[in-house]
Amino acid sequence: MKVKVGINGYGTIGKRAATAVGQQDDMEVIGVTKTRPTFEAKVANDLGLPLYVPDGSAEAFKAAGIKVAGTIKDMYKKADIIIDCTPGKVAEAYKQEYSEAGVKGIFQGGEDHSLTGISFNASANYKESWGAQFSRVVSCNTTGLIRTLYPLDKKYKIQNVFATLIRRSADPGDSKNGPINAIEPSLKLPTHHGPDVQSIMPWLNIQTMAVKVPTTLMHLHTIMVRLSSEVSTDDIIALWKRTPRVKLVKGKDNVRSTAQIMELARDLGRTRSDMYEIIVWEDGVKVVGDTLYFYQAVHQESDVIPEIVDCVRSMCKIEENASASMKKTDKAMGI
Ligand code: NAD
Question: Does the global pTM surpass 0.85?
Answer without folding.
Answer: yes
